[in-house]
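Hey, I'm writing a tutorial for new members on how sequence and structure tokens pair up, and I'd like a real worked example in the thread rather than a made-up one. If someone can provide the structure for the chain below, I'll link this post from the tutorial.
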Amino acid sequence: MTQSNRDTQTFTQGVALIVGGGPGISSSCARLFAESGMRVGVAARNPEKEVLRTLEKAYGVRRYACDASEPAAVARLFEDVVQDIGTPRLVVHNIDGRVPGIFRKNIIEADPAMAFETLRNSAFSAFLVGQRAARLMLGNEPDANGARGTIIFTNASASLKGFPSSGAFAMACHAKSGLAQSMARELMPQGVHVANVPIDAAVGWTQEDGTRSHRFAGTTVDDDMADPVHIAHTYLHLHRQHRSTWAFEVVLRPWVEKW
């Protein structure tokens, strides 16, 4: 077998776990990873969502119930995934974490309990998932690229700039960035690629009528929103990168986004 064929085999086999299950980035990643030959699991608080049922039927994606802010639930998730489909070589943490009541609340109005819950849902869940993923991946045999696995954290523009009336979310996103950076410095020398991906845009996913839209930003016009299909391709590319050029932070934004 040639080196090229060995590399291709490495990238088209293995297990991927996506934590956070919705119709946008998570679903696009699940479809692409499955099409690439990976065994895929998706975890969500509500695994009975229609979009996840469709992924199971069409792509063989395994569905798991998990509140990723609970340590015992995350431990159980990884145990079940290993038993069902194998040890992950690719883990994506794709959880926004904001509770509805904290959205667009200024610092005077923001409820402390909601701010804490946002931090727990986002950064703390990222810690729990990242920790479990790292423990397993460090036990993987290195592939042809010398890699033991890839951990990707979806983040937001709030990780780069604290917007007005977004203190709780900015706090959580900055915390996730700090976690990812610390993990990358610790784990990359041991063969685990860690990447932080702030999405500086609304993410518009394809609706039943064929348009792409976001629940707050409306309908996509001329690719003015991030397309989750192409976000998924970026994630797969990160997983496939040669270790001599591993990227840590990749900021994605549409061509017309003001920044």
